[in-house]
Structures are given as C-alpha cells and as structure tokens.
Amino acid sequence: MISGVEGSKIHPEYVSLGDIVVIQRHFPIHFQEYCKVIEQARIEQKPVVFELDDYLFFLPEIHHDRLTHTFTPSLLPMFQAVLEADVITVPTIELKKLLSPFNRNIVVLPNYLDDHLWYLKQPDDRSSAGEKTVIGYMGTHSHKPDVEMIVPALLEILNRYDRKVEISFWGTQPPDEMRDLTQVNWNPWYSYSYQDFAEYFQTQRVDLFIAPLVDNVFNRCKSPLKFLEYSALGVCGIYSAIPPYCDIITHKKEGLLASSVEEWKESLQTLIENRNMRQELAINAQRLIRQKYFLSENAYRWAKAYRKIIENHQNTTARRTSMLFPVINSINLQLTELLRENEATLQELRNQVSMKDATVQELTRQVDTLRSQLSDYEEEILYYVMSRSWRYTRPLRRLNKSISRLFEQS
Fold it and tell me: pTM for this structure?
C-alpha cells in the first residue's frame, strides 16, 4: 500500500504507482488535490474507490460534529466523491442502502476486531463479596446525546444500589445530572492513538458495559465495533435494540438489547444481580467474535474486493459524464476558493493579533524594567533616610539651600 499523504504533503502523482486508488472519507476537503487525483486516475484508467464509514450527510442536529461543523466544509466534496467513484466501500448494509441511489457499485466490508491490538480476556466474575459492581461506558464527545437518553435509568440504579454500584466513563464526560455524584468516575482520553487506547482500555476493570444509541438514520448506519471492543475485555453489555447492535447480537445470548428507559433499567438491574448471566453473555460474545469477527481471518476480504474491482473496471465513462458532475464540481471549486479566501483573511488577522501580542509583550517588559528600577531607587532612598550620616548632615544641607536661595535673589 502506498500512502498519497505524507504528513501535510499530498502527492497526486503517486496515483501512477498503484493499481487502484482508494480515497478515504475526509480527503475530498482538499478539493484541488482531490481533483488532480481523480484526473490522473482517469488518464491512467485506474479504478477509484471511496471509503465511507458514517452517513455524515445526515448528522443529527445535536451531534457534536454538527455543532462544531467538523465535517461541514467537506460534505459537498464528499458527495461528489460518492457520485463519481467507481466503487464505494462501507461497513454496514444500512449505509449501503442509503447510498445506493447515488452509486450502484457499493461493497460492504464490515469492521472487525483487530486481534493484533486486542486479545480476548477470559470472562470471569471480577466482583467479589463487598466489592462494587462497575458499569462502564466508552465513547467520544459525539455520544453525549446517546448517554443522556438513559440518564433516568442510570440515576435510579445509582439511587437503588447506593454504594454497591459505580459508573465509569471513558472519553465523554458524564451527563450534567451525574457529574458531581461520588458513584460516578470520569477518565478523559489521554491519547487519540487507537493502539495506545486499545492497550490502555484493556487494563480497566469493569463488570458490565452499556452502549446506548439514539434511534436515528445516522446511528443506524454505524458499525457494532463497540460490541467487539467491550467483549474483548471479557465483559458483557447492554445495547440499544437498533442496528448496528440488533444485527449482530441475539438478545440474552451475546448481550442484552433495550429499547426504552424502562428496559434499560430492568436490564441493568438484571445484570447487577446476576453474576452468572454476566459471565455467560461474555463467553457467548467472545465465541461469536472467534467465529466471525477477527480481522486477521477477514483481511482477505479487502484484497478480494480490490482484485474484483480492478478486474471489472471498464466502461465507467458514461456514468461520470452526467451533467450533474460539472455542476457539483463548479460549486465545489467556488466553495474552495471562498474557503481559501477566508483562510487568508483569518491568517492575516492572526498575524495582526500576533504583532499586537508582541507589542504588548515588549511594553510589559519595559514596564517591568521601570518597576525594577523604581524599586532600586526606593531602596536607595530608604537607605539614605535611615542612615546616621544622612541625619547628621541634614542641618548643613538646609543651610546650603538657604545660602543658595540668597545668592539667587541677589
């Protein structure tokens, strides 16, 4: 595999070095470079694959990435990539269904558990008599609405079991209603390296996990990766009863599925009180992973899919010459020009602020110097005032001033 991006440097010319061009989801934001890659691939008649793992075109209104506009500038360029790619690869059938009206060539390549980073820990009963039962949740800040959906159930469980249960959050902060509770712990991310995260997370002690998801189009297109990662720790979980989880989990076999706050409360109570069930669910979940979801045993699917794409790459010009592409391409070029102008203006403002900061720093330095000098003068004056010689010669200094004034008058 040849990477076309090295640090901040993009190399469209590297298209010539490969047999197939794979574009990942956020790359089209670099629109001019993206166009060069597409143009070079067409000249050399090499198939273009667009990888997309989330339905970013329909981010929920309260989603963190929508509120912060993380992907907003790249949505239209990404949509152009959806339209003109020879093949799109996605991790779920749900996402394929939604993208099918825009591109007829879509291949599902599911997410698997990277068994070079994750190992299956033996499921066991971690909690002994007198120890707290630890409920765990792991997710980024974008999952805040998902957790908030089941806050009433979590609060009731904490109230019912008091000091026998605690909840630990990794990544996203606990909801506001729970943040100050002594039974709630928060572990911020210390690294955004997936390898570092996997190593760290596998050292944590948890008795059962939760994975709530608000039922919307965006979440239904997600993959069940959280189920795989939770289960790798030898820990069972409770999951929202929507795709992606209901597509992989059989209720009461590999985990529990919940649809309402009441079901979440009942499921939490069941697993808190039933250690044997927790262990049985964890064992079944790991059995399923061994059978179907190790990456090492499924990596061949990418090679197989890419070989087929290369073999079938022919006569795709007709679809790409649709009048839709020039229009979208023109819109993207204009938006790119606007973004670059805005970036230039923003950089100029940064430069001005930087210059003002430098001026302020220099003035601050000069003031500090003057203060230091003033302090020295004050100490010197105080020394003279307190010294004996200063007091003894004071009458002579007065006489000298009087004589000086008489001469000035005469």
Answer: 0.79
